[in-house]
Amino acid sequence: MPFKMILKELMDTVPGATGAILADWEGEAVEQCCCYDVYELKVIGAHKGILLNMMKEMHQKLAVGDIRHTVISTAAQHFLVGPIGPDYLLVMTLARGAVVGLAVRRFESALERMYKEIY
User: Cα dist. 102→14, 94, 119 in Å?
Assistant: First the structure.
């Protein structure tokens, strides 16, 4: 499965991208690509997986439809988080100055490609 290739392409096509990780529903890393400490990215992936699961539960209770992706912005960086079916998630980290709109577009494409590979 070309997960590493998809993650690397995502990073290469989004200026300001600093990391991308595919994790399972428990937050365990399946594959990752980053320009900083891999352990830090794995912790970020697990944490954002917890947040995504909480958001999915809220959306089910509110009957507002499934989450496609979410953007979390902090003072230091942006995070894109999205589910890949019921069992996996993709997390991407971006420098604060990155163009989030472009990142979202490429992120959604990566989500679709990974979904096809997994399911």
Answer: 7, 11, 26
pLDDT, residue 63, reads 86
Tell me the CATH number at 41: 3.30.450.30
* Phi-psi region at 41: left, alpha or beta (left = phi > 0; alpha = psi -120 to 50): alpha
What tokens does 79 get? Answer: 């995070």
Question: What parts of the chain have a pLDDT lower than 70?
Answer: 1
Pairwise CA distance, residues 38 & 35, whole Å = 8
Range of the domain at 83: 3-118
* CA–CA distance, 39 with 37 (Å, rounded to integer): 5
Total number of domains constituting the chain: 1
Q: Please tell me the predicted confidence (pLDDT) of residue 1.
A: 58
Separation of alpha carbons 80 and 68, rounded Å? 11
pTM over 0.85: yes
